[in-house]
Structure formats: C-alpha cells, structure tokens
User: Fold this.
Amino acid sequence: MADDSSDLLDALHSLDITACKDLIRQLQARRERRRELVERLQEKLKALNNELAARKEEGDRCKQDLLDEQAKNRRLAEKRRQRGGEKEVASIQDDLQREQEMELQTANVRRFMETTLQEQVQRNRTQNELGIRIYDEVELMVDKSAEEQALESRYIDTVLVTYCIPNSELKYNLSFRVDKDMKSKNLREDACLYWGLSEVDFILKTMSNAKVHDDLTIQSCFNDNEDAHFSLVQKTPKNASLMDRELTNILPKAGEAL
Assistant:
C-alpha cells in the first residue's frame, strides 16, 4: 500500500497542469457516480423496508384473522356438541372442514409471501468493482404521488455554464448537475475550480445579463420554460486612474514663497 501511494505521488509530480485538470475531472466524475449510486441504493433500501413492513403487517393481520376464526369455530363446535344430534355433528364436521381449508389457504398465502420476498432479496446479486450490489432500473423505481411527480418534473437538474474568457471572444461551455437545494454560490465555486479561476474575480450572470446573487438557489434563478443557462464572467475592474486623479485633487496645494 505504501509503495502504491509513493508511485501515485511520483506520477502526480510528473503530470503537467493539463493532465492534472483531466485527472481532477475524472476523480470528480467518479465521485459523482458513486454519490448517485449510493442515493439509488438508499432509495431502494427504503422501498424494500417499506414493502417488507407492509407485508409483515399483512401477514400478522391474516394470522390474527385466522386465530379469531378458529376461536369462533371452537365456540360454535362446543355449543353444538352440547346440543347433540346428528345435524349438529354434521355441522361440526363442516366447520372443521372449513377451518382446515382456511388454514391451508393461509399457509399457501404465507408461503407465497415468503417465496416472493426471498426472490427479491436473492435476485440480481451482481456487484461492481467496489463490491457494491448493482440494481436494475425496475428495482430502483419508487412509487410517488402525482403531486410529487409533478413537482419533481419542474426541478432543474442540469445547468449550462458558459465561461467567457476576459478580453477574448473565446467561450467554453460545460454542464453541471445540480439538486433542488443547491445555491448559486456553490455552482460558481465549482465552475471556478474546474477552469482554475479565482472565486473572488468571477461572478455568474443570467443570459439577460443580470447578476446572480450567491444566496439564491438554482431553482429560483429561472422562470418557467426558461433555459437553465449561466455565463461565468470576470467582475468589472475598478478604474484605478480615476481614483488616482481624485486623490491628487484633494491633496493640499503648496503655496509659492514670497
């Protein structure tokens, strides 16, 4: 492990700035994929836990219904045995037969539930190179209400940022993944980090040339049906020559000697 770390450090020292940027982008992309994978696994685990709890509750309810029905049948059988007679005996036999049929039906339902849960647990045991189980898209689907789906459909998950190089007509475009709570400040910092810029010297603007404040969320920066597109531009530099002239004008004037 120590030799591997030493080799990695030697390799990093030998990289130029372009190769380092490429390596950083690859590591950031890998980190994002891992984060998305963990989120999908957490959603699937939550769905499985909810389904397991619901089926367990259903099984307990069926078991309780069966116990209540058995108790009722025993009470009926006791009353009929006390009354005696062939009709009562035949009725008791019918009750016993129905009880047996109900027990058999309950056992079949329990076996079906256990088999279904076992198949879901054992299905798709494929793992990636990190040893994490890979689920298919059907397993990762979570049922949501129509209101939640309509609300999520309006969320912005990708923003295009155009880097305008100062004193040049060159521009670079890059898409960034965002969530519903992400601030514009975080997006600006990520963009500056990607292009190796100073966070102090650059700001985000909308395509209508309006400055985007750092405390705004990405979701609140755009109107409905408006393209999620920012430009990363350099702040307007202060006019140093004007300030020098103003300072010169306020200095005391030296009078001529008499």
